[in-house]
């Protein structure tokens, strides 16, 4: 079970289908309207963890009760070119993990 939010400040992505990256939680554009502009995205979510097929307890890992993610990103679009860059903080997934992770996301688009 997961709950969270994303706020988009700007014009890019407002009238498009937005998809969510499963790992980072970042929103990315599934369709394009090619309107020039920029957008800044802020978001966060928390998930209640019941079990994990990727981190089985039989392997000696004690899962955290909740997993958190926080993210920020920037969309830019001008004519046939656009890009997105974002940073995501992924909270600890199991108790013996020393700290969370900071990961980057990059998506380039050039229509020709």
UniProtKB/TrEMBL annotation:
Superkingdom classification of source: Bacteria
UniProt-recorded name of the protein: Uncharacterized protein
Lineage: Bacteria, Pseudomonadati, Pseudomonadota, Alphaproteobacteria, Rhodobacterales
Gene3D superfamilies: Outer membrane protein
């Amino acid at each position: 079970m997961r709950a969270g939010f994303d706020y988009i400040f700007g014009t890019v992505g407002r009238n498009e289908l937005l998809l969510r990256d499963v790992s980072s939680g970042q929103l990315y554009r599934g369709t394009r309207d090619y309107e020039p502009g920029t957008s800044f995205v802020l978001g966060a979510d928390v998930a209640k963890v019941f079990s994990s097929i990727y981190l089985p307890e039989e392997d000696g890992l004690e899962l955290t009760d909740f997993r958190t993610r926080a993210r920020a990103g920037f969309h830019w679009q001008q004519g046939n070119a656009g890009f997105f860059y974002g940073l995501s903080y992924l909270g600890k997934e199991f108790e013996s993990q020393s700290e969370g992770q900071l990961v980057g996301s990059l998506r380039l688009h050039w229509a020709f």
